[in-house]
Amino acid sequence: MYKFKGRDILSIKDFSKEEILYILRLASKFEKKVNPNLLKGKIVATLFYEPSTRTHQSFSSAAQRLGAGVIGFDNINVTSIKKGESFEDTLRIMANLSDVIVIRHPKPGSADLAAKTVSIPVINAGDGPNNHPSQTLLDLFTMQKIFKRLDNLKIAMVGDMKHYRTFHGQILGLGKFSNNKIYGICPKGLEMPDEFKNENYQDLVINMKNLDEILATLKPDVVSVGRIPREYIKGNSKKYSFRITIETVKKLPKHTIIMHPLPRIDELDTEVDEYPNAIYFQQAKNGLYIREVLLALVL
Prior knowledge:
Elements: H1 17-32, E1 43-48, H2 54-65, E2 69-73, H3 87-96, E3 100-105, H4 110-117, E4 122-127, H5 133-147, E5 154-158, H6 165-174, E6 181-186, E7 201-205, H7 211-218, E8 222-225, H8 246-250, E9 257-259, H9 280-298
């Protein structure tokens, strides 16, 4: 049996292929039925130093669906952080009041520091452009539900390879499986950092005006779209703009699915929502089951 109790969830790199598949099997069970008393008496602290909708609310929902209480914040202006309290002191106080900490912070490595600071489990809900393991797991869960496998897939990632942690996690997660081909389609200057590349990955740096033709030629199983994260880009981020439209997806194979972690800005036209294989809202819902599993396992 895999050891999860008391474990920190910091990066998808920390999981073996077998552990990932175990989590996904449990997520399938939790999707069908959860025990509303499983975490009765436990407290989950959600510490969100950055804005969040899906991750914050789905962790809160997951905790409550399993019977746990939820404390924390999603606005540092209403906490003692605003008065100058240190990161470490905030963590120590919250650890005294809870059984697990779920943390999002703009600084890479912040979740690792949190895990070193407190003795209770820490779940990384995004540390800047670095890691977001529950997002990776829900993405893998979504692909597995559609294709019944996580091997022999062709994935086209479209957007900012340099800063977008969703893409970083997908590469690392899919890299644990066999014969996947991953293409990063991005404007020049936003290529994938070397630390996330593996033998399955290839950069396709293009003029994004040619995007439709490139995707049609690739014939991918998955088109994974991401916004240009303007908060991490210095200067004019609009020069990197692109748009997936209904005309884009009409040129794709009928089995191709369109994924997006959301929120979207202007890179994915709302007309695509009507496309049968546009599954990003179901993808977001899958995050609930993954986060239920992670909370249950570490507690």
